[in-house]
Structure formats: structure tokens, C-alpha cells
Specification:
With 320 residues, this protein is an alpha/beta fold. It is 39% helix and 23% strand. It is globular, with a radius of gyration of 19 Å. Bound molecules: zinc ion.
Amino acid sequence: MEEDFSLAKVTQISPGAWQISLPFLGEHEIVGSYLLAGGNELAIIDPGPGSMLEPLLASIRAVGFDPQEVTHILPTHVHLDHAGATGSLVRQLPRAQVYVHSKGAPHLTDTTKVVASASRIYGDHMHMLWGDIESTPAERLHTLEGGDVLQVAGRRLEVHYTPGHAIHHVVFFDAHSGELFVGDVAGVKLPGVDYVRPPTPPPDLDLEAWSDSITLIRSLRPDILYLGHFGAIKEVPQHLGILREKLLAWGDFILETMRSGKNEAEIIALVIEKTQPELQRVTRDAHALQRYEIASNYAMTVQGYMRYWRKKHPERLQAP
Ligand SMILES: [Zn+2]
């Protein structure tokens, strides 16, 4: 059968490791997966959305592997852009077993709630964006906790629990190679643009937990971070410092606007007005602005912070 490898954009990042760009909404290098191979095993870190299943499988074939040989699926967390394809993959790939944080597991074994809440948000665009969101049979799923160690694809991967962006978020650290696969907890930074955006969707955003997770990541002293959105970060302490600063500064700004009685739509407009110039200073490319919006949009950013302040710190919403 003819294979359309044009769907695939794969880059080898180290021996036995590849970065896969999934052409989400027709855009490359926004949504990424990672493939690890070794010891007769194949592992996918963050399989991506269900709508990108075919490009993902094409990418694995493009590297020279048979997707049927996939043994491990390792979502950093269960958001749809990272783990939406998990159930469909498990159904199609007989050897594949899923490893996910215990708090994320129920969302994969029964996707009914995820589908319902995403349908409320995305409406008619639901299937175009996310494709099928199938459940994973419990017997194919294994729960992780921070401190676990996985022997996967010839590597020893440490599992570290990193809540803040999501309560079911883990990172996978190969201490031998210094490679750390960080999902969304190290923020969004797209290739070629010197700009970090904190992805802060509802409902789990927790600034204290996220700050602690950033401290934990620093303490591992990784040589390189691999982001979900998108690619490699080599200046690790600098990148994490900027992320933490921005995460907290945006939080303060949104808290102020809430205290002054602004509603959600007004706050979104104010955040755009405040932060777009920062991004425009580092790129004049209007397309780059749209690309950041695909990776992490302003509406969800604001909704995440508003929920966080109301739920975790209602006392701070009182005007001083
Ligand atoms: Zn996420």
C-alpha cells in the first residue's frame, strides 16, 4: 500500500529517539510526540490528539518501524492534545500498554466525561480538532506515581510527579542521557521564536504546585527539555526562570483585573492588550501569533487563572 509520508515530519534527536511533529490544524511544530526505540521495544511519549492518529502512525513507519511493534504509550498528562489518541492506539496496536499518572487513569479508561466536557467547549469543531476519543481497557493501563522507574525501550526512565498545569502530569527523565520529556509543565515555546507562554487551562491550574514542579525539574539538572509545544530547550535554567516569572506575573495581572470587577471577556481583551506586544517584540510574524494561539489560547489561559483564584484564593479577590 502507498504510504503518504508527507504527513510525517520526524527528526532524530538522539540515539534511539525521535521527535514527531503532528500537523495539527495543518501546522507543523506546534503539537509534538516523541518516539523511543531500543531493546525490541517502541515507546510513544504523548501520542497526541485522535485527529492526528494517521500522521503519528505514518511517522513511525517513516523512521522504519512497524507501529504494530509499539509496546509503551506514555502520556505526560491526559489533555486531548497529548493523550487523545491513546484509546484508538491501544485498540489498533496489540502490544501497546499505557502508563499514566493514577489521577489521569480514570479519564482514559472511560472517556465519556472528557468527550462531554470537550463537546461543550468545542461544539461543531470537536471531531475536526480531536478526532475519536476512545476509552482504554483497564487491563491495558498501568498507573504511575512520582518516584516510579520504568525500563522502556532500552532506557531507564524516572517518573516525576509535576502538578500545576494538570493534577495528572508527570515528566519522564532519562538521567543517563540528561533528556527530560516535560509535556506542558515547562511551558510553550515554538521553534524560532524567543518567547515562552505559560499554558494555564482550567480546571487544575495551581500556581504553587506548578512553581514547586519547576523547582523539581531544575533540581534534576537535565541537559535538555523536550516540550510538547514544541521541541528542544537547551538553556534549561534560563527557560524555567522565564516561565516561572511569566506564570506568576500573568496571575497577578489577572487577579488585579478580577478585583477591579472586570468580566471574563474584558479580562481576555486586557491580557491580549498587555501580552501581545511582548510577543510582537520578538517576532514581527503575524503567523507566529496565531501559532501560539493554537498551542495555548488566551481564552483558556484566562479561564484557568480565574478558576484558580476563585477556587484556591477567594480571600485575595476582596479589594484591599
Ligand atoms: Zn496540557
